[in-house]
């Protein structure tokens, strides 16, 4: 029901959500027929539907290379993340992973759910990898080798200092940025970006994920995963797990804000990297995740709920980002909006308030200097939207019409189903909508609708 409430509070999310849902359906139909490629793209849709959607923007050869790059690194990450694998087994696998991608017979059982499927049937990924162009293979092999070595290093090493934190994030995400820049260059569509800017693109995303995933990582079984640097959290508590205790809420939020401020220092580099991209499809592929993660940081900042539950952008806002992000001015506008949102949450009593403000002012200045902020569509609601009953009726009509259009069932069945549901609940709620006799669609002719019916339709279409 949370998605229903979100739609009622933010009715302008509806259109982007419908477009996103239809785009995802279209993407799922683009899976290649060859068994190994079908496996790779099907699994990609299961482990990251949003990534699988954005990757469709790319041309076929680059799309295939990025798909395999993602799955190889996801497999490497699955080995690193599995805390049940003994260190003496895990480290050699990480160190040799770049060679395993050339072996059609290699596999290793670990991970859970879709990730276990990936590891058990890794031969499909290897087969697809061997069909890529040599320049793509070399880029993927190089990054996999460097990442595996870095992960192995931190299996036996704690993240103590901020420098350690930057180094760890470089190995697990900054190298992804470097690898993607190499793939873009190998495709002939982009100049080779600098390592510094490519690294920052990865670090910005990874640090946001580490902040957002605190509770999941600290509660990991059989052993906690601790990526927050001791140099930061030790200023507030004696043990990292103490941040989730209610009695430490004030200190926890201050530590959180310290971590968010650290992540924000990479935003200017990200803007420089994206502003240099020339290919529209590659631009969108890079820009959409950056905007979503900036929005996530804005939601996490000064938010105790990071230590209580998962905090992320609502689905409708993510759909808006995907729908609106076409050019660099769109990125400047989004970064500007989320930076303003974050700035409004800064507590002057926070020990890092001055530093946070300075970092945000730098981001805001970069966006203002672009000269593209006029007539922008804001991602931030200045006031709470209100929904009168007739607006809800209109939204229901649009949703039900779309359901009737997209459904594979017979039209008569849809009409009877809708009519049955409407009749079933008409007298259960005290509020009744006006008769919709002036509408022409047969499903709605002379019907009355209730809140409960509307919620059922919303739920069936949007909570997935």
From TrEMBL:
<keyword id="KW-0812">Transmembrane</keyword>
<keyword id="KW-0808">Transferase</keyword>
<dbReference type="InterPro" id="IPR019845">
    <property type="entry name" value="Squalene/phytoene_synthase_CS"/>
</dbReference>
<dbReference type="InterPro" id="IPR033904">
    <property type="entry name" value="Trans_IPPS_HH"/>
</dbReference>
<dbReference type="InterPro" id="IPR006449">
    <property type="entry name" value="Squal_synth-like"/>
</dbReference>
<protein>
    <recommendedName>
        <fullName>Squalene synthase</fullName>
        <ecNumber>2.5.1.21</ecNumber>
    </recommendedName>
</protein>
<comment type="pathway">
    <text>Terpene metabolism; lanosterol biosynthesis; lanosterol from farnesyl diphosphate: step 1/3.</text>
</comment>
<keyword id="KW-0472">Membrane</keyword>
<dbReference type="GO" id="GO:0051996">
    <property type="term" value="F:squalene synthase [NAD(P)H] activity"/>
</dbReference>
<dbReference type="InterPro" id="IPR044844">
    <property type="entry name" value="Trans_IPPS_euk-type"/>
</dbReference>
<dbReference type="InterPro" id="IPR008949">
    <property type="entry name" value="Isoprenoid_synthase_dom_sf"/>
</dbReference>
<comment type="similarity">
    <text>Belongs to the phytoene/squalene synthase family.</text>
</comment>
<feature type="transmembrane region" description="Helical">
    <location>
        <begin position="389"/>
        <end position="406"/>
    </location>
</feature>
<comment type="function">
    <text>Catalyzes the condensation of 2 farnesyl pyrophosphate (FPP) moieties to form squalene.</text>
</comment>
<dbReference type="InterPro" id="IPR002060">
    <property type="entry name" value="Squ/phyt_synthse"/>
</dbReference>
<keyword id="KW-1133">Transmembrane helix</keyword>
<dbReference type="GO" id="GO:0055056">
    <property type="term" value="F:D-glucose transmembrane transporter activity"/>
</dbReference>
<dbReference type="Pfam" id="PF00494">
    <property type="entry name" value="SQS_PSY"/>
</dbReference>
<dbReference type="GO" id="GO:0016020">
    <property type="term" value="C:membrane"/>
</dbReference>
